[in-house]
Design a protein that fits this description.
This protein is of the alpha/beta class and about 270 residues long. It has one domain: 3-Layer(aba) Sandwich (Rossmann fold). About 45% of the residues lie in helices and about 20% in strands. An eight-stranded mixed beta sheet has the order 1-2-4-3-5-6-7-8, sandwiched between helices. It is globular. The two termini are about 25 Å apart.
Length: about 270
């Protein structure tokens, strides 16, 4: 299937919109701060050759605007609703950045619904360095035009070697990540929730499904040490660090990493 089905459900916390691609076993994709499903670019189409891909708009943006304020826990419950609406009892789950935190909460709060878990570019807790990065996001969202903010944030999303080699890809990523004006309040609410702090370490020991944790060696947003700490708290999690990569490890790791992820999810 080359185009997604666009779905929307009315949950107890408000509307949740998602895209559904392809056929086969289910695979749930959860993106990061301020992200609609469109942030994934071509990835859902590629994965839809093997999976039924489900990709929601995060609470507060896109078709998931309105309803209760954003929380990691509430977003995990939203994910469970989407999975049930799509007709599946359990799924593989991939979460990146803030989406990785949601994915962990999904596995903690709905363990029967998460068969295999891939978490990329996120830390188990708010650290001082991460807090400073979130302040930068706040300034970008409020002081710059949406397209300017997106271009500025690409400096953290991709390592310089990758950005110099694939400038067109990075420009496309900036366009996909550019906030629509009506999404700014929801993105700022997500940001406020993160700035208030989180510490998943006491809960991560309850994740029982096979888990793969990915980090970029040079990630300035979620440093590898922070992601390694998250992996260490999940029983028997496999940790993989991508050399020379920054925050967008699934893109920077290329086809070799993507094939490893698909292999893990298909086992």
């Amino acid at each position: 299937m080359s185009v997604p089905q666009l779905k929307s459900i009315e949950g107890p916390r408000g509307p949740v919109a998602y895209e559904r691609w392809g056929g086969g076993p289910p695979l749930f994709l959860i993106a990061g701060l301020g992200s609609r499903a469109r942030l994934w670019g071509e990835l859902p189409r590629l994965l839809s050759e093997r999976f039924t891909v489900l990709a929601p708009d995060n609470r507060g943006v896109g078709g998931s605007r309105g309803g209760d304020p954003f929380t990691l826990e509430g977003s995990a419950d939203d994910a469970a609703l989407v999975l049930a609406d799509a007709g599946f009892s359990a799924s593989g789950v991939v979460g990146v950045s803030m989406g990785g935190l949601i994915a962990c909460q999904f596995a903690v709060r709905h363990p029967e619904a998460v068969q295999r878990l891939v978490v990329a570019s996120c830390g188990a807790r708010l650290t001082p360095s991460h807090a400073r990065m979130l302040r930068f996001f706040e300034l970008a969202f409020t002081r710059l035009a949406p397209d300017e903010a997106a271009q500025a944030l690409m400096a953290f999303a991709f390592a310089s070697t990758f950005a110099d080699r694939y400038p067109g890809f990075v420009d496309q990523a900036a366009r996909l990540w550019t906030l629509d004006t009506e999404d700014q309040p929801g993105a700022l609410q997500q940001l406020a929730h993160l700035k208030a702090g989180w510490d998943l370490r006491p809960q991560l020991g309850g994740i029982a499904c096979p888990t793969l944790v990915l980090a970029g060696e040079l990630d300035p947003l979620a440093p590898a040490a922070s992601t390694r700490e998250l992996a260490a708290a999940i029983p028997e999690a496999c940790y993989r660090e991508v050399p020379g990569a920054a925050h967008s490890v699934l893109a920077e790791g290329g086809s070799a990493l993507l094939n490893k992820v698909i292999e893990f999810l298909s086992t």
